[in-house]
Amino acid sequence: MCCGDGDCRPLGFLLGLPFAFVSLLLSIIGVIIWIVGLTLTCICPCCLCLTVIVELALELIKAPFHVMEWFTSQIPC
């Protein structure tokens, strides 16, 4: 264990940075889709397909966190 608790994986963090940057760009697109989808859902609540799009946008927003967690868990300390 390098930091005492076993969660220290700086190499995984550094290798994951470029992928996290791409995920960050996707999350910005997700925010835009989320805002538009949420607005359209408020205007016309009968469109159930818009809620699926809003849920997809929320997953895009969370993408950088998922990528960094995955990279840091793959590379041992």
Automatic annotation (TrEMBL):
<keyword id="KW-0812">Transmembrane</keyword>
<keyword id="KW-1133">Transmembrane helix</keyword>
<keyword id="KW-0472">Membrane</keyword>
<feature type="transmembrane region" description="Helical">
    <location>
        <begin position="38"/>
        <end position="58"/>
    </location>
</feature>
<dbReference type="InterPro" id="IPR055283">
    <property type="entry name" value="TAXIMIN_1/2"/>
</dbReference>
<feature type="transmembrane region" description="Helical">
    <location>
        <begin position="12"/>
        <end position="32"/>
    </location>
</feature>
<protein>
    <submittedName>
        <fullName>Uncharacterized protein LOC103491288</fullName>
    </submittedName>
</protein>
